[in-house]
Amino acid sequence: KESSAASDVYKRQHTHCGGGRRARRVCARASRHAAARGAQIFYGLAAPSFGSLADRTGKALHVSMAGLCGLAVLLPLFALPLPHWALFVVAALFGTSATVQLTPASTLLEQVAADVVGDHPTLTYAVFNCAYVSGMAIGPGVLAMLTDALTFQAAALCVSAGALAVSTVAACHLRAGVS
To answer: Is residue 1 a contact partner of residue 53, using CB atoms and an 8 Å limit?
Structure first.
């Protein structure tokens, strides 16, 4: 019964596609593609602004944690059966939150790598890239395993809960004066 209700919502969202099953699939694929491009466009457009904000305020970790909270709140919305325009808005906000989180985090990660490696700029960059690429490689696999073990909705909630937990711990450290 639950799946038929979701199917009815899906059909209502795609009435403009001509109503056929194939047309709905093509329309849904185009919608997901547009949402992904929206996230990428807003990610790219917002990066200089939030990088500048982190530099001006000197609070890169604060800015990064604000972005992480935004990601944690927005990620579960992708699991909802949203209309196309709402999916695009969520993707645009998600892309903006991603750049708010990642732009200052990149400089922080570079500082940590420099502290670990010392005064060796090439090795610092290599350690930074290793950490960054490892996270980019491991993250999707972890989400895929969670999705296989649970549902996409439950996996999205788990990832969001983890992001909120990291944000909370970081906020506590910031209050305590540790950065």
So the answer is: no
Tokens of 64: 């990064």
CB neighbours of 110 closer than 8 A, spacing ≥ 6?
124, 125, 128
**How far is 167 from 154, CA to CA, in rounded Å?**
20
Name every residue whose Cβ is closer than 8 Å to that of residue 84 and which is 6 or more positions away in sequence. Answer: 13, 31, 34
Task: Provide the token pair at 67.
Answer: 């972005």
Q: Indicate whether this model's pTM tops 0.70.
A: no
- What's the token pair of residue 50? 């939030």
- What is the C-alpha to C-alpha distance for residues 155 and 61, in angstroms, rounded to an integer? 26
- Of the candidates 149, 169, 175, the residue with the CA atom closest to the CA atom of residue 59: 175
pLDDT digits (tens, 9 = 90+) for 137-152: 887 888 888 888 988 7
